[in-house]
Amino acid sequence: MTRDNWRNRDNWLSSGPLDTWHGVSADAANRVVRLDMGRNSLRGEFPVDLANLTNLRHIDLSANLDHLGLGYNRLTGPIPPELGNLRDLRFLALDGNQLTGNIPPELGNLTEMEGLFLSDNQLTGQIPPELGDLPRFQQLELTGNPLTGCIPASLRRFGDHGLGLPFC
């Protein structure tokens, strides 16, 4: 994302303290801990440099994105159900991380979703049937996760992904 494509870019890339930059919160050691850039008309490629913000604990890019690619990092913990609020998101790639827990059913709110890539994590539980209701859904990758239960019949068109699970 280039700085010129943002609506509010007050103090960005200035010599001022990081927490004076629009949407940035920093800790006492001047390390970025929060980015709040929602509804800021962000455009362009997702900045790979975000992976260098090792103290980042919260990021809000809602109402800006149609692609979110965070695959093959060292992300841990559950998939935030709040990702279901990114209504314009078309592609979500979280594959190749160390994510745990269930696939949030809130991802079924992403009515523009075309592709969801969650392979090679440690996701457990059942596949949310809500995913099968997405009208634009074309790609689903779930291999390499110890998922349980059955594959919703509405996702039959994607095959069994080698999960060894029956269809519901």
Features of this protein?
0% helix, single chain, mainly beta, four-stranded parallel sheet, elongated
Overview of the structural elements:
By secondary structure, the chain is mainly beta. 0% of the residues lie in helices and 18% in strands. The strands form three sheets. A four-stranded parallel β-sheet has the order 4-6-8-10, with no helix packed on it. A three-stranded mixed β-sheet has the order 1-2-3, with no helix packed on it. A three-stranded parallel β-sheet has the order 5-7-9, with no helix packed on it. The chain is elongated.
Summary of the model, kept short:
The protein is 0% helix and 18% strand. The protein is an all-beta fold.
Provide mean pLDDT, rounded.
88
Number of helical elements:
0
Distance between the termini: 42 Å
Q: Could you tell me the number of beta strands? A: 10
SSE order and pairing:
Blueprint: E1 24-26, E2 32-36, E3 58-60, E4 67-69, E5 76-77, E6 91-93, E7 98-101, E8 115-117, E9 122-123, E10 139-141
